[in-house]
Amino acid sequence: MTHEPDQLYQAVQATRPLLRNITAAVERGSLREGVTVGQRAILEGLSLTPGATAPQLGAALQMKRQYISRILQEVQRAGLIERRANPEHARSHRYWLTPKGEAIITAIRADEMEKLALFSEGFSAAELAAYHKVQLALTRFFADMAKEV
């Protein structure tokens, strides 16, 4: 089966404006709830993995350790998360959402899911599954390419 590399190249090039627009839309929704895009990412990460450590969040969100640490401090000061000692490692901490943090990420996600549900009506389940499959493969492909010397 022959594939059109030019068509895939064009799709990859369309990713840059897509990411800019996703970031802008997510930022608008997050700011309505009083959090930044980075803070929203941490809240969502902790909603999916309660009790995660900073390194676990960094790996899951593919963000640098220093950035994760700074954002964790911000959301902790805002009362959106709580930090607890990690019984498995003396110098490490685990993080949980507070009720306030849980309410904020729940509201943000509900708004996003409502909008995505409307958008997705224009596509079949097979089309959405194919898009997801290609997107994940491209993410792995470029991550591997970035590791090459």
Automatic annotation (TrEMBL):
Residues 5-140 form the HTH marR-type domain. SMART domains: HTH_MARR. SUPFAM superfamilies: Winged helix' DNA-binding domain. Transmembrane segments: none annotated. InterPro entries: HTH_MarR-typ, MarR/SlyA-like, WH-like_DNA-bd_sf, WH_DNA-bd_sf. This is MarR family winged helix-turn-helix transcriptional regulator. It comes from Ruegeria marisflavi.
